[in-house]
Each structure stands twice: as C-alpha cells, then as structure tokens.
Amino acid sequence: MKKTVAALAVLSAVAGAAHAQSSVNLYGLVDVFVGKSTVKNTTGAVVTNTDAGTSLSSGGLNGSRWGLRGSEDLGGGLKATFQVESGFNADTGTSADAGRLFNRTSKVGLSGGFGSVEFGRQYTQIFQLIDGFDAQGTSKFSTTNAIGSHSLAHSDRWDNSVVYTAPGMGGFTAAAQYAFGENATATTSAGRAFGLSAGYANGPVAVKAAYENVKATGPSEAAKTVGLAASYDFGVVKLLAQLVNQKDGLATGVKDQGAVLGLMVPMGAAGNVNVAYGREKAEYAATGMNASKATSFGVEYLYSLSKRTTVYAALNSYKYTDLDALVETTTRNRVYGLGIRHKF
C-alpha cells in the first residue's frame, strides 16, 4: 500500500512538472474613441468639403484584438512556441477581417540557442522598423500612417512566411524573412517576398535597418524598400527618426521617399505627449519629374489610469498633393479623437 501511494505521488509530481513546462496565455486589448474627420479636396478652382460627423470608432491607439500565445519546454533549451491573434471592431463587435479568423498573427515555431524560426502569417521587417521607431506607434493619428496612405505602400504582414531571428548578442539583433508565392498559374510565375533586418539597442541608443523585396506575379520587377531608423532617450525626451525609400516594380518606376521625426515627452508619472512630423515625395525614376508630395503632423496625449488602462486625446493634420494630373489636386485631412484603451 505504501509503495502504491509513493508511486502515485511520484507520478503526480512528474505530471505537475510536465504541465508547468507548458503555458498558454490569453491576452488582448480593447480600444475605442469618439472622433471626427474632415476632408477638403481642391482641384484647380473647385473646392469640395466633406465632414463625416462625429462617430465612435475602434482602434485609435491600437487595433482592438484578442489572442493566444504559449510555449512548451522540449528540453535541452529547445521550446515550441505559437501565437494566434484576431482583430475586431470594438464599436460594433464585428471581425476586423471577415475573411480571416486570425488576421493579425498566426504562427508556430521553435526557439533555442540557435535563435528562433517561425512559420505562418507574420509582421514584415519593414513594418517592425516603422512601428518600432514611430513616436505615435502607427496609430490612427500617426504621421507615419498618414504619409504612407497614398505612397510608400508596404504590407504589415506576409502570409506563408518563414522568419529566422538570430540570438541577441550584446544588443545586436538580426532577422530574415521569406514568404512563399502560392499563386502561380500556367502562364504566370508565383509572387514571392523576402526581407532582412539588423539592429542595435543599448541603454538610450537604438538603431535599425531593414530591406524588403517583393515580386508580384509574372515577370515584373520587384518593389524594393529600404528603411533606416534611430532613437535616443535623453530621459526628459526621447527623439526618434526614420527614413524609408521605395522603388516600385511598374514600368513607370516611381521612387518614394518618406522621412519622419518624432518626440516622446513624459508628463509627470502617468502622462506622455507624443509628437511627430513627416514629409514624403514621389518621383518618376526615368525623368525625375515629381509625382506627388505629402506632409503630416500628429500629436497625442496619453494618461495612464493604471498599468492596463489609458485615456488619450489625439489629432493629425495631413496634406497630399497629386502632381501627376493635368490639374493639380490637393487633399487636406484632419482627424480628431478622444478615447480609452484597456489591455488584458
């Protein structure tokens, strides 16, 4: 009897240890804001004003989402990991993407002394650079988002991608990503994409570079994007800067260049002001003629009610001029918002 009890105790301890080696966490955030957007279009002498009125919207600072992530200890320093994340509209309760359950992230992989390798739908290297060095965190009021709305187009995520992340060494990081093209036909080759990034962060200093090459279906030249970014935290203010250059694969060969400067200023123990200004221009590579230009200014005030709950006020002013038309067209857009974000 004593031997049976002892054996059961050992089995119970082993089962408990095995269970402790695995973990699954539910997480997410809900973000809603009351806001207003006004648009003024000027084409020659014709002016059109649009005011959509005040509305309640989802995802002011961050897109509302929920997700699951976890890991299993396989022994010898090796772990299996996974993450699935779904976006939703908090104002209506609907899915942010009707065609995908886990539209934000869906990946599984292995990690260890070699670094990590992950497979699935994942953030691109260029997006991680842009988001990581944006004072406004690519929010709906973000200057970076505004100047990229007409040009400097890039995918936030790639389907069917493999990402290798090297182990961090002395503040240095590096990653490589490849997305398989799965849309080949009898007459066109499949698209594909790959990206690289390298960075360094130590104390108040951080720098990062990223490269992206995307090939559409068929024989067209790939669109190529290069990004450089840096930040320095002075304590009383954090300065951020990024520069992104892109050349598309169309016969016209349009080149885009965008630059953004940002400041993050602590305001007391719970407050923060984020400010950013950006400029963008596009020109035809063959002729050097201008195609478009844009400027944007954004500011946000965040106040933390707790570690998980933040209230905020924000605005963005954006001007885009289309120079590739018989009559010059200018669009001015202003967005305002008051909101609350809760993380869980």
Automatic annotation (TrEMBL):
<keyword id="KW-0472">Membrane</keyword>
<dbReference type="InterPro" id="IPR002299">
    <property type="entry name" value="Porin_Neis"/>
</dbReference>
<keyword id="KW-0626">Porin</keyword>
<keyword id="KW-0732">Signal</keyword>
<feature type="signal peptide">
    <location>
        <begin position="1"/>
        <end position="20"/>
    </location>
</feature>
<dbReference type="Pfam" id="PF13609">
    <property type="entry name" value="Porin_4"/>
</dbReference>
<keyword id="KW-0812">Transmembrane</keyword>
<keyword id="KW-0813">Transport</keyword>
<keyword id="KW-0406">Ion transport</keyword>
<dbReference type="InterPro" id="IPR023614">
    <property type="entry name" value="Porin_dom_sf"/>
</dbReference>
<dbReference type="InterPro" id="IPR050298">
    <property type="entry name" value="Gram-neg_bact_OMP"/>
</dbReference>
<keyword id="KW-0998">Cell outer membrane</keyword>
<feature type="domain" description="Porin">
    <location>
        <begin position="7"/>
        <end position="322"/>
    </location>
</feature>
<dbReference type="InterPro" id="IPR033900">
    <property type="entry name" value="Gram_neg_porin_domain"/>
</dbReference>
<protein>
    <submittedName>
        <fullName>Porin</fullName>
    </submittedName>
</protein>
<comment type="subunit">
    <text>Homotrimer.</text>
</comment>
<keyword id="KW-1134">Transmembrane beta strand</keyword>
